[in-house]
Amino acid sequence: MKATRIRTTLLLLLTLTATTVLRAQNPEATKQLYFTGQLLEEATRNNQLSKGYSEVVFEANSPDIVITSSEPTDHFIPGQRKSNGRYEYRVIMNRNASRSSNQRRTLFFSKEGININQEFVAPNVKELMSERYLITEKDDYITSLDITPRICAHLVQGEGCLELQTLLDLNIESLDGVALNKEVSTNSANAKVIKLSFKVADLKPTSAVRITTNSSNSVDIPIGGIGDRLRKIYNISSQLRSNADASNSNVPRQYIVIGVSPANARVYINDVNVPVVSGVASKLLPLGNYSYRVELEGHESQSGVVYLNDPDSRIEKNVYLMANIGEIIIKGRNTNGAVVIIDSTVVGILPMNKIPVVIGNHHIIVAREGFKSYETTCSIEISKPFEINADLRVGQTSEMAHITFISDQNVEIWINGKMRGKGKVSDDFVQGNYLVETRSGGLTLESRFLYIPHAMVPRTIRLDVPEESTGNIEITSEPNGADVYFDGEYMGRTPTSLQQIDAGSHSLRLTTSDGGYWEETVELNGGQTLNINAKMLHNVVVSFSCNVADAMLYVDGKEQGNPQGNFDIALGSHTIFVQREGFADYEQRIEVKHEGQTFTIQMHPTFDRMITVNGISFQMIFVKGGNFTMGATKGQGSAANGDEKPAHAVQLSDYLIGQTEVTQELYQAVVGNNPSINKNPKAPVENITYSDAVAFVQQLNVISGYSFRLPTEAEWEYAARGGVQGGDLRYSGSKDYDKCAVTGGSVNQPIDVGTRLSNELGIFDMSGNVWEWCSDYYHKNYYKKSPLLDPQGPETGSDRVIRGGAYDSNPEACRVSARMSHPCTMMGRSANLGFRLVLSK
Hints:
Radius of gyration: 43 Å
Number of helices: 6
Strand order of the largest sheet: 37-34-40-44-41-47
Number of strands: 65
Largest sheet: 6 strands, mixed
Shape: elongated
């Protein structure tokens, strides 16, 4: 961006200090306007001021501020001297003026070639009453700074923001410590968009944001008055800019000011377009000769040459363009009440007298609801009126299309000048052109022309949505006649058209009475028309199997019974949900592609479970999976052996583990015998080989219907350490072995299970009593290559891992990380060796 220096910067500061509203004192009689008792002017229309006008007061410390407006009916009162070198400027704003659909009004403030555009956007211009604005001068230099502050609409939720657009690197700070949340993005013009948000409750009357460039030029934007504006939201667009050639102050320059009428004429100086603000174009140029040209469609252009030779004065020229005007006369049957649209602009409702238009070609539409609209193109000459015979024919049923217009609940929907309803209008419309408007509180929110073609498919059109953020969806199906549900809302039957839908992701579902089904999530871009042809799918027979027979199956939210056997389900995507007390809810998205598919459901217990087999009960403890460090951790101290190293990270899935070792009474109930040397029903079964333990598990699974197994070495250590709840203790549940371990010479045989201190998970006897088989083959260097996720041990080997120590072991062997190899043969039987169970979740 080219560096430009602005010697005088006008900073528009918005405040809400109260000012007295202009009132007409008995206007019918006196026709005089008073402000704080002082007569300001005589006016012929003052009898309307109390009904349709309001006042905005501005203060400035400069006597030569010029105010103009985009609304020609606004009245301006020149600046009056106040104390402390300030001047007052008043604008009497016509609230009944005919404005565009968004009711915009723009005031322009100018001084010495620098303009500040102040734009008001309000639900009702009446809200401009009793507002005060302040214009001040600031002696500073701003280097090519283009700032657009905007007070955002979500201020009503207690949060305010400023949006700044710039090509410069800016430093932004709060002058009184208000917390600012800054978000930076880039717009389509590659300019930075900086959004500053803050809490309105944090603001003080003096709160302000300081913006500084790399060259230490700064500007302050006050935000302290925002807290008082929660109910009055305007869009403030304040842009500081200078003339393009003002960067070199050493070159003599002179202003050329060209006033034009009509005010929307275009001005060119040396074939370069100069912006026209309220009928005035101005430019500061180096001395010399310049050609100018003023033109506007439908008017005779004017041109000339100006000579700039005096930098202490300015050249002023007023240019009036003569319009080339012709006339149109519209007649015809059934035209009374019809809307006349010329070149996409509504000019009135028939009957009308001669309609003035500029000479040239024009597109004319005559539209009346219930009739087929008339449309023509004509060439207008200045010499004579152009007469149109626009006979309107009553619309036929076959020419009608069903249209649904949707807006906000309390917004009025007007069609061809008639109010048809609030929030939603759904009706049959004849082929033709229609003027569709939304209104609220007497103001027009949106106005558009809609052409409804001959017997088109039903359409749903969302009003009051910016076109650049919406798109259209055209929907057909095979066969047609399917019910359409868009984001869960019924939208009619195919074929149908959804118009002005918000861009983004949407769910679309089609169904038919014979079981046909189609569903998809669609992505819609702004300005896109998405064409969808849905091929309806129908029911097929599929089967489900589940490891929990008495669970309940739901398909797309509908109860189907136990998840076993055959079910009729539509082709396509479905969500299945299976529930059973004591088990984790099972949910999965399935794709039904053909007849005969089988879906297997594996449910897992969610918490501790008491299981009874042949009259003997035992408890399984739920272990929440997670990450832990396995092996020679710091808590194991110098007692750690070489096969416990290196300490390494392991991640485990959920599982359940026996609260105690398998007891002799449980072993007896399942297998029918008790191989233990030291008989005691409540003590752990011992004298067990690895093969004995595996055979027991297999028999238990047949009887119980569960899928028990032996623990892996990692699962055993994780449970012994207390899982996610445990710490780095030397023994299972304590740092002192005599509190939790059945060892150390205190006994000479295994004791009843569960009689010593448990660990953090409520698991007993993982330090001492009996050694416990694990499913892993043993290898002294396995930890050097153990995988992270659910390690299973070496693939081959001769010995298996045993863990936990026994009643006759020394304390070091009972540590949670201690491991030992043991042969799997018959020679491996021992009175101090047993096992415990694991159940996968």
